[in-house]
C-alpha cells in the first residue's frame, strides 16, 4: 500500500496539515479531514500524527481569542463558531460557510486523547494544554448535547447523533488530560439514547452514523448492528454509499455514491469481529482503486457512473489504508468486544 501512502504524502503541507484533495475545489484544510487522514499513523513512529495535531493546535492558538469569547458566550452567527475550513496557511477563509460543526471539534479532542494514549507527544507545552481545556469549555458553552449544528456534511442545521457522539467520544478521551465535567458526557449519552438509531429529526439513517462505531465506539453492539443494517440496506450502492436518501449533492438523477463508504463499513465490521464482512468490503475497496488507477475519489456522481474531480480524497485514501491493516495476517485485534456503552 505504499502507493496510497504516497498519495497522502503528496497532500501533506509543510506545516504538517493536509489539504482535503489536490482539486481546486478542495485545496483547503478541514479540521475533520486532517483528523481522519492521519489515523493510519496513530500506531507508527513517523511523526506525521503528531505534526498534524501540532498544526491544528497552532491554528487554535491563532484564534484563541475567539475560543475565549465562546467559552462564556454561545456563538450565534456562523462565523462566530470555530471555523471548520481554513486556507493552507491555517487562516480562516472569509467565504460564508456552515461552520457550526461540532463533530469536528469532538473528533479533534478524540484524536488528541488517542494520540496521548498511544504515547505520542501531542501537547508540547502549557499553552497547548490550556487550548485543549478551552475547547472542552467551548463545547460546554454550546451545550453540544442539544445544539443544532451543520454536522459532518456541513448542511442542515439540526441536532445530529454523529455530532453528539463525536463530542461524547472526544470529552471521554481527554478527561484524564483536562477538566471535563462528567455531566456534560452524561447529557450527550442521554441525547444519543433518545435519538439513535436515527441520525436526526429529518434523517432516519445516514453514512455519518458509522463514526459512532468506528472510530468512536460509543454505541453498544446491538445499536452498532442496527446502524450497519440500516446503512447497508438503505444506503449502499454500486460504487460506494450514499450519505442519506434524497441527498442533492452531485445528484444528476440519483444520490452521489461516496467511495469511502466501502472501507468505512469494513472498518466497522472489523470492530465487531466480522472477518467475512471485512474481506467483502476490502474487495469492494480494491475494485474502486483498480477502476481509478490506484486513487480513491470522493464520490461517483449520482446517475452517471463517473467519479467527480475531487480525486484523490485524502480522507478516502486514509480509510482504504486503515482497512488494509485489518486484512493483513497480523491485523489488530478489535477492542469493541460486546461491552455496553452509551446507547
TrEMBL record:
Keywords assigned: Kinase, Transferase
GO molecular function, one term: kinase activity
InterPro entries, per the entry: 6-hairpin_glycosidase_sf, 6hp_glycosidase-like_sf, GH15-like
Signal peptide range in chain numbering: none
Name under which the protein is recorded: Phosphorylase kinase alpha/beta subunit
Domain GH15-like: 14-181
PANTHER family: GLUCAN 1,4-ALPHA-GLUCOSIDASE, TREHALASE
Organism: Tumebacillus permanentifrigoris
GO biological process: carbohydrate metabolic process
Amino acid at each position: 500500500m505504499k502507493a496510497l501512502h504516497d498519495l497522502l504524502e503528496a497532500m501533506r503541507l509543510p506545516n504538517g496539515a493536509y489539504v482535503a484533495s489536490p482539486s481546486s475545489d478542495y485545496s483547503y484544510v478541514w479540521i475533520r479531514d486532517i483528523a481522519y487522514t492521519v489515523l493510519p499513523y496513530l500506531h507508527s513512529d513517523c511523526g506525521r500524527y503528531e505534526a498534524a495535531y501540532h498544526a491544528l493546535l497552532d491554528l487554535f492558538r491563532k484564534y484563541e481569542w475567539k475560543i475565549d469569547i465562546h467559552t462564556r458566550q454561545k456563538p450565534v452567527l456562523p462565523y462566530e463558531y470555530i471555523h471548520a475550513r481554513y486556507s493552507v496557511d491555517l487562516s480562516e477563509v472569509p467565504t460564508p460557510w456552515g461552520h457550526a460543526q461540532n463533530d469536528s471539534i469532538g473528533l479533534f479532542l478524540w484524536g488528541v486523547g488517542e494520540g496521548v494514549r498511544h504515547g505520542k507527544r501531542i501537547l508540547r507545552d502549557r499553552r497547548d494544554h490550556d487550548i485543549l481545556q478551552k475547547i472542552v469549555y467551548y463545547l460546554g458553552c454550546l451545550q453540544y448535547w442539544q445544539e443544532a449544528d451543520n454536522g459532518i456534511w456541513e448542511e442542515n442545521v439540526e441536532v445530529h447523533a454523529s455530532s453528539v457522539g463525536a463530542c461524547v467520544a472526544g470529552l471521554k478521551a481527554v478527561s484524564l488530560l483536562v477538566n471535563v465535567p462528567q455531566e456534560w458526557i452524561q447529557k450527550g449519552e442521554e441525547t444519543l439514547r433518545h435519538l439513535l438509531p436515527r441520525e436526526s429529526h429529518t434523517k432516519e439513517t445516514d453514512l455519518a452514523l458509522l463514526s459512532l462505531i468506528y472510530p468512536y465506539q460509543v454505541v453498544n453492539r446491538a445499536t452498532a448492528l442496527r446502524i450497519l443494517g440500516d446503512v447497508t440496506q438503505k444506503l449502499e450502492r454500486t460504487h460506494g454509499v450514499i450519505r442519506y436518501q434524497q441527498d442533492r449533492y452531485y445528484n444528476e438523477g440519483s444520490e452521489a455514491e461516496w467511495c469511502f463508504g466501502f472501507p468505512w463499513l469494513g472498518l466497522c465490521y472489523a470492530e465487531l469481529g466480522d472477518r467475512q464482512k471485512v474481506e467483502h468490503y476490502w474487495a469492494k475497496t480494491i475494485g474502486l482503486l483498480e477502476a481509478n488507477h490506484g486513487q480513491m475519489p470522493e464520490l461517483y456522481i449520482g446517475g452517471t457512473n463517473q467519479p467527480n474531480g475531487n480525486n484523490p480524497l485524502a480522507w478516502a485514501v486514509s480509510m482504504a489504508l486503515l482497512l488494509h491493516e485489518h486484512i493483513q495476517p497480523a491485523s489488530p485485534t478489535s477492542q469493541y468486544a460486546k461491552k455496553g456503552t452509551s446507547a
